[in-house]
Every structure is written in C-alpha cells, then in structure tokens.
Amino acid sequence: MRFRSLSTSLVVVSAMTAGCAMAADVKLIFGHVGKPGSLFEASVNAYDTRCRD
Predict the structure, then answer these.
(1) E runs forming strands in the chain
(2) How far apart, in whole angstroms, are the C-alpha atoms of residue 40 and residue 46?
(3) What are the distances in angstroms from CA 1 to CA 5, 6, 14?
(4) Are the CB atoms for 44 and 38 separated by under 8 Å?
(5) Tell me: the pLDDT tens digits for 26-48?
(6) Are 43 and 36 in contact (CB under 8 A)?
(7) Helices H / strands E in the chain, number of each
(8) Do the beta carbons of residue 40 and residue 33 sit within 8 Å?
(9) Is the pLDDT of residue 8 over 60?
C-alpha cells in the first residue's frame, strides 16, 4: 500500500514538473548563420536576386 502511494505521488509530481517545463518559452539563437561574408549570406543573396528577376 505504501509503495502504491509513493509511486502515485511521484507520478503526480513528475506530471506537474513536465507541464511547467512544457509551458516555458523557447528561444533559439543561431549566431553564426548569416554573418557578413559567410556562405549562407552569399547563397541567400544569390537566391534573392534570382527571385526578383
């Protein structure tokens, strides 16, 4: 009986913790992408000029 109560409490606490973690905002930062002179910037600029034509 005690094991069942302990495991139920553990499940409830885990669910509450997971719910709070899932509700948090996530911000992804990719600082190295698109730096001046990078290959990514060159390909984006080439794509942009082709799309405008």
Answers:
(1) none
(2) 10
(3) 6, 9, 20
(4) no
(5) 776 666 667 788 888 888 889 99
(6) no
(7) 2, 0
(8) yes
(9) yes
Residue type (1 letter), 11: V
Tracing tokens 């992804």 back to the chain, one arrives at 28
Identify the pLDDT of residue 1. Answer: 60
Instruction: Check: pTM over 0.70? Answer yes or no.
Output: no
Question: In this structure, are residues 43 and 50 in contact, taking their beta carbons and an 8 Å threshold?
Answer: no
Q: Is 24 helix (H, G, I), strand (E, B) or coil?
A: coil
Q: Which two tokens stand for residue 37?
A: 């002179």
Tokens of 47: 């794509």
Determine contact, residues 41/34, Cβ cutoff 8 Å.
yes
CA distances from 48 to 20, 26, 42, 45 (A): 41, 29, 10, 5
